Amino acid sequence: MLFKKIGQFEIANNSSFMARVLILSLPAALVFIMLVGLNLLTPYWAIVSYMMIIVFNMVFLLPMSAELQQLKKYINELAKGGVADDFNMNFSEQEAREIAETINSVHKFWVYKTDALETQVMSDTAVLDTLPDPILMIDRSGNVLGANLSARQFLGADITNKNIENVFHANNFINAVARVLKKESESENLIFYAHKDKKTEQKIYAHVKQLPWFSKGRTVAVVSLYDLTKAVKLEKMQSDFVANASHELRTPLSVISGFIETLQTTAKNDDQAREYFLKIMADQTAFMSDLIENLLSLSRIEMTQDELPSERVELAEVIEDVVKAMSLKAEARHMHIITEIPPHLPPITADNQQIRQLIQNLTDNAIKYGLSPSDVTISVKEVEKIPSSKSFSVSNGKALAVSVNNKGSKISREDLMRLTERFYRMQEHKDLNIKGTGLGLSIAKQIIIHHRGNLTVNSTGYDGTTFTVYLPLDLNKNS
Ligand SMILES: Nc1ncnc2c1ncn2[C@@H]1O[C@H](COP(=O)(O)OP(=O)(O)OP(=O)(O)O)[C@@H](O)[C@H]1O
Ligand SMILES: [Mg+2]
Questions:
Q1: Atom 25 of ligand 1 has which residue's CA nearest to it?
Q2: Contact, 303 vs 368, CB < 8 A?
Q3: CA–centroid distance, residue 321 to ligand 1 (Å)
Q4: Which CATH superfamily is domain 131-227 in?
Q5: Domain 230-304 maps to which CATH number in 1.10.287.130, 1.10.760.10, 3.30.70.1230, 3.60.20.10?
Q6: Separation of 308 CA from ligand 1 center, angstroms?
Q7: Ligand 1 near 298 CB (within 6 A)
Q8: CA-based nearest residue to 90, from 59, 66, 60, 112
Q9: Nearest to 449 by CA among 412, 404, 479, 409
């Protein structure tokens, strides 16, 4: 056994091993001293016998000690994070083998537990990161212990470890968090204003909630935030819309009421003036009725926005009808409408009435704002894919692309960006006194969104302006 372990002979030189051997041999030394004292043994034989006992103890202890050293090494490895399976388990001593096996199974159990815990933590983090609203976890002193992805995007990647007082400076928010941390209240709901930078102020709804007593971690409260800025903007857009619509109606109304007054008084018996005023009044009334009709169209389309259109529409037929209806208007401006429609176009799934209005609005614009005399061209082609949009979702799969082109001056980049805004009209057309409500293209955009399609505008000095509408072939299958 000793020779088997000779490779680990350094262990025999180890001072603690030798001390252990000497301690084990001590009772024998005492016995030998007594025997020599009683003259029952000569000192020579006493020393020889004692040396033999030491050698015997070394032989007896060495394997055990070697295995213990090996075990120690093994446990040290595990403590440093080593892998249990990598370890050589060839212990010759029964006890050492059993201890090693026990340690190994305890280690395996903890590795399994730690893995399970890590997986759970990772999946909890992933779930929190999918939430659209910012969430902060805070400790007893108000320090941020964790933040989900949305919070990190909203408040910066270095949000963790900051004190909540340094994140938002709004007093009502800081006080609400303090009340929850002091357990004066279980939860708090409030609205506060935060300054993102010098110019932008954000309206934020916050919900601060104490965690239940059985949650033993360092997190004691959770703050969830909801950015109300977009909702406020939407509210403002709606009130702006009502203000704009009222303003647009008030202008012709005041013109009409002014002329009525003139006709009742100063121009009472002036036949020529009456004819002139009545013509203007008729124009203003027509404008008002167009405006009301467009406002109603907008609200009707918005109301249907959640239902997908389901009619089978032959685009070629719709275009031919629109061309017929608009030809007089085109002729009045010395223009021709040319159509380039391939035969046997597949039908599209759409709302017939809305598609008619869409093509009509684009053709009407081309006639109104195009160069006179020149041609307006309406062309259709089948495309494999609708170009994607940043602000709304478009249908996948094949589509029909309808392009309406007119000649004329180039539209500037700034104007192009705003054309589909409600009531937006280009200054040069207002200056030229071309009538319009500024709603035609916003109606077109709503119809396109309803059909999960898209709109592109291309304007150059040479080719004129082309509005291209993409409408999916099979809306229900691909949206
Ligand atoms: N084909 C075009 N060429 C040049 N400018 C255009 C063209 N189409 C639209 N515009 C510009 O975009 C603005 C908005 O168009 P939109 O159709 O929404 O309103 P409108 O034509 O003024 O009013 P409405 O359509 O109610 O008669 C127009 O006022 C015009 O300035
Ligand atoms: Mg228009």
A1: 440
A2: no
A3: 21
A4: PAS domain (3.30.450.20)
A5: 1.10.287.130
A6: 27
A7: no
A8: 66
A9: 479
Distance 347 CA to ligand 2 centre (A): 26
Residue 224 has what pLDDT?
A: 96
At 219, is the secondary structure helix, strand, or coil? Answer: coil
CATH superfamily for domain 309-478: Histidine kinase-like ATPase, C-terminal domain (3.30.565.10)
DSSP 260-304: HHHHHTTTTT-HHHHHHHHHHHHHHHHHHHHHHHHHHHHHHHHHH
**Ligand 1 pocket, 355 CB below 6 A?**
no
Mean pLDDT (the chain) is 89
| Residue whose tokens read 């910012």 | 134
pLDDT in tens, 57-106: 888 777 777 777 777 777 787 777 665 554 555 666 677 677 777 777 88
Bridge partners of residue 469, in order along the sequence:
402, 455
Structure tokens at 235: 């509210």
Contact of 2 with 55, CB cutoff 8 Å: no
Find tokens 């759409």 and name the residue. Answer: 350
Tell me the pTM: 0.67
Determine if residue 376 is left, alpha or beta; phi over 0 gives left, psi from -120 to 50 gives alpha, anything else beta. Answer: beta
Within 8 A by CB and 6+ apart from 69, the residues are 8, 11, 14
Residues with a beta carbon under 5 angstroms from ion ligand 2: 365, 440
Span between the terminal Cα atoms of the chain, in Å: 80
**CA neighbor of 70 nearest in space, from 102, 96, 41, 38:** 96
Tokens 């015997």 correspond to what residue? 56
**DSSP code of 384?**
S
Ligand nearest to the CA of 429: 1
What distance in Å separates the CA atoms of residue 363 and residue 355, rounded to the nearest whole number? 12
Q: Calculate how far, in angstroms, residue 243's C-alpha sits from the geometric centre of ligand 2.
A: 20
